[in-house]
């Protein structure tokens, strides 16, 4: 995965520049005031600092839609250009007005980077390390702040500190970022697939994953194009087909799914069962946790939790039982494939199959998603037209898809498959269509060899190996009901470019998307009002009380230099904590980290309130305040710092991800402005103890919100996450109706 890691590190430099800028302006404004004589004009002074926030807020309003239109990479390139230009203009800045313009340009660059870097990393990272890689922006941002404080502190020791040089140095790292975005960062493969540029997406995925065969993940990305399809939860038992003699007549049972592997003679069968899957049980009845919370816990949270609670200890479905559980795309292995499916070939495409009572087929119909090659297994199993896999599907058998990622299928223990299903229409005629299935193993086999998992309604030989699996079943993204009505020869599939013609505002009102927006916007609001700005504002005062300022003054440092050094030391404390969070993000998970770290924030704020109200002596007060601030910073950057942006980059469908991220980011910036400028007013009206008390109350509300509404998304493919939101939203609606 080194390709994905290096790309994420390069993209996260955009956040390093944001951290660099935040710290630099905090130091430079001390000298800007003196040169332009702004001591009597606090409004102009505040505007110089705030102009970056204003620029970020303005650019965020359109960044999402433009990134959905032009792509993620062009927006990151534009961000680096804006950083570079703002650095040069700040280096020049002959007056306040030019400086304000430069700060506005800088804000544009900050807004694009903060909004789109998490999206870009989420869309390029493999599910297993997506949390780790998406914590990089927080880490690089803190590194940027620390390096900037060190630089400004060094300059403050000069006889005549030059604020233009402090601010203008930004153009050097931004030039490095520009070179990386141009020559190293590829376009997001998910965005490329959404535009039908399949060949480019395949090459990017090959580079990111470090292997040639990425057809399974390509299929997954295509499936992520749909928004709002009807999704149901089904349950299956999966076992080797060749151990059950009934499997020789697989076409007799249209409820079974045939799963093909790349090796000749290797296949398995998934049989539908009821009442065994934890996911299925939860989806029908709700969990004990849900009932114990008086029904307040979102069904979506319970659904996600049921998946993570039942992960097998020894790995995925593939690694536990089927070491060659492969992709339908690699059946046969060496045959030529038709993968040149780009926007130049926007035609209805699909593999041939035998239609009802007719042998008509069109050899000119091709599909990049369903290979045309065949094996003796298929010929022996199913009498399909030309032995094709879709022919097998048409006869009631099914094909597995999803190239193994490591040993995890499409990621997180999920496998991708399709099936052909038929039902009688109103006129008595049979109507058929494809169904897409995300399969997930649940539980651990009773034994590595020689035993079975007993399933209701499923008899199996005693020397077989079986697993139970839950499945999300939905209509494929490329399936067209309109084309099906025309009774085509071949599956009614459309080109991805036709499926994702662009997001519309109506997509935002699809129940799953609306549900995800509530989670994303809610957690961004609560993060900003949880007190980080207030604690940052108060930190120098606390450390001054602790005697750090006196110690630094004795070393001959001026008050300005001492303040900068204190801020740099505070930032340095964050780095080890963020490193721990990076390690835990994909192990403990996002939800677990939030539920664990927020109580520490509450405790730290309450101690600060007590320290402000109760006089325990100057030494004791300073000591407990210092410890509280350090604890607050360390646990904030482990949880509430990076996780809101990580979650927002994961929970929206590809087609509307840009717009939804922009809405969440706009919420972030507006709340940032409100909190920053309300703090001095609140300090005057309710005092320090009142402010920290309010922040503690918000943190309590945040914990409740996370417990009730925020699901655990670790290790799951983005497409599966959005499918769960769709299912969960419909369950919420159904429960309200009941």
From TrEMBL:
InterPro entries: MFS_dom, MFS_sugar_transport-like, MFS_trans_sf, Myo-inositol_Transporter, Sugar/inositol_transpt, Sugar_transporter_CS. Residues 7-714 form the Major facilitator superfamily (MFS) profile domain. It catalyses: sucrose(out) + H(+)(in) = sucrose(in) + H(+)(out); D-glucose(out) + H(+)(in) = D-glucose(in) + H(+)(out). This is Sugar/inositol transporter. GO terms for molecular function: transmembrane transporter activity. Residues 336-366 are annotated as: Disordered. Pfam families: Sugar_tr. Gene3D superfamilies: MFS general substrate transporter like domains. It is found in: Vacuole membrane. Keywords: Membrane, Phosphoprotein, Sugar transport, Transmembrane, Transmembrane helix, Transport, Vacuole. It is a multi-pass membrane protein. SUPFAM superfamilies: MFS general substrate transporter. Belongs to the major facilitator superfamily. Sugar transporter (TC 2.A.1.1) family. The chain crosses the membrane at residues 43-63, 75-92, 98-121, 133-157, 163-185, 559-581, 593-616, 622-647, 659-679, 685-708. GO terms for cellular component: plant-type vacuole membrane.
């Amino acid at each position: 995965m080194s390709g994905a890691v290096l790309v994420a590190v390069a993209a996260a430099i955009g956040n390093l520049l944001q951290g660099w800028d935040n710290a630099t302006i905090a130091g430079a404004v001390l000298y800007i005031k003196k040169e332009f004589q702004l001591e009597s004009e606090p409004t102009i002074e505040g505007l110089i600092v705030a102009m970056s926030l204003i620029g970020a807020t303005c650019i965020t309003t359109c960044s999402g839609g433009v990134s959905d239109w032009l792509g993620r990479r062009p927006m990151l390139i534009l961000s680096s250009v804006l950083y570079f230009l703002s650095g040069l203009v700040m280096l020049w800045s002959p007056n306040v007005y030019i400086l304000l313009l430069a700060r506005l340009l800088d804000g544009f660059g900050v807004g694009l980077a903060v909004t789109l870097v998490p999206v870009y990393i989420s869309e390029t990272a493999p599910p297993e390390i997506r949390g780790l890689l998406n914590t990089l922006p927080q880490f690089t941002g803190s590194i940027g702040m620390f390096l900037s404080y060190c630089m400004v502190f060094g300059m403050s020791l000069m006889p005549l500190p030059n604020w233009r040089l402090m601010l203008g140095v930004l153009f050097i790292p931004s030039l490095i970022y520009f070179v990386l975005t141009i020559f190293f960062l590829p376009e997001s493969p998910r965005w490329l697939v959404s535009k039908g540029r399949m060949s480019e997406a395949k090459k990017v995925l090959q580079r990111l994953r470090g292997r040639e065969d990425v057809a399974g993940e390509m299929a997954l990305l295509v499936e992520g194009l749909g928004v709002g399809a009807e999704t149901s939860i089904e349950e299956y038992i999966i076992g080797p087909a060749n151990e059950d003699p009934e499997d020789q007549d697989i076409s007799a049972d249209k409820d079974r799914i045939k799963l093909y592997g790349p090796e000749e003679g290797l296949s398995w069968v998934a049989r539908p069962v009821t009442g065994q899957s934890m996911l299925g049980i939860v989806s029908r009845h709700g969990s004990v946790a849900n009932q114990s919370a008086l029904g307040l816990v979102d069904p979506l949270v319970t659904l996600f939790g049921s998946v993570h609670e039942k992960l097998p200890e020894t790995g995925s479905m593939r690694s536990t039982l089927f070491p060659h559980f492969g992709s339908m795309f690699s059946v046969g292995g060496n045959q030529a494939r038709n993968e040149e499916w780009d926007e130049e070939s926007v035609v209805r495409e699909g593999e041939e199959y035998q239609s009802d009572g007719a042998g008509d087929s069109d050899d000119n119909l091709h599909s990049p998603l369903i290979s045309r090659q065949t094996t003796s297994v298929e010929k022996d199993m199913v009498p399909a037209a030309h032995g094709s896999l879709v022919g097998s599907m048409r006869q009631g058998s099914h094909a597995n898809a999803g190239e193994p990622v490591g040993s995890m299928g499409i990621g997180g223990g999920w496998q991708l498959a399709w099936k052909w299903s038929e039902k009688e229409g109103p006129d008595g005629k049979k109507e058929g269509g494809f169904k897409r299935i995300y399969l997930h193993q649940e539980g651990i086999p009773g034994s590595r060899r020689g035993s079975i998992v007993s399933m209701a309604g499923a008899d199996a030989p005693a020397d077989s190996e079986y697993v139970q699996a839950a499945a999300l079943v939905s209509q494929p993204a490329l399936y067209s009901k309109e084309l099906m009505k025309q009774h085509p020869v071949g599956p009614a599939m459309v080109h991805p470019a036709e499926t994702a013609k662009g997001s519309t505002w109506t997509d935002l009102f699809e129940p799953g998307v609306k549900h995800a927006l509530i989670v994303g916007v809610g957690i961004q609001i609560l993060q900003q009002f949880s007190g980080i700005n207030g604690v940052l504002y108060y930190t120098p005062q606390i450390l001054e009380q602790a005697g750090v300022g006196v110690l630094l003054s004795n070393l001959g440092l001026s008050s300005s230099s001492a303040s900068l050094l204190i801020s740099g030391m505070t930032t340095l404390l964050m780095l080890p904590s963020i490193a721990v969070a990076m390690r835990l993000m994909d192990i403990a998970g996002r939800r677990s980290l939030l539920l664990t770290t927020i109580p520490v924030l509450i405790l730290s704020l309450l101690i600060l309130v007590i320290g402000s109200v109760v006089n325990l002596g100057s030494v004791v007060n300073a000591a407990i305040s210092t410890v509280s601030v350090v604890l607050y910073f360390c646990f904030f950057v482990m949880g509430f710092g990076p996780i809101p942006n990580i979650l927002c980059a994961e929970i929206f469908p590809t087609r509307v991800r840009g717009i939804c991220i922009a809405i969440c980011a706009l919420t972030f910036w507006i709340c940032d402005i409100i909190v920053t400028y309300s703090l001095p007013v609140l300090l005057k009206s309710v005092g320090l103890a009142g402010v920290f008390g309010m922040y503690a109350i918000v943190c309590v509300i945040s914990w409740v919100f996370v417990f009730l509404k925020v699901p655990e998304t670790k290790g799951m493919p983005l497409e599966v996450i959005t499918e769960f939101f769709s299912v969960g939203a419909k369950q919420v609606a159904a429960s309200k109706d009941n």
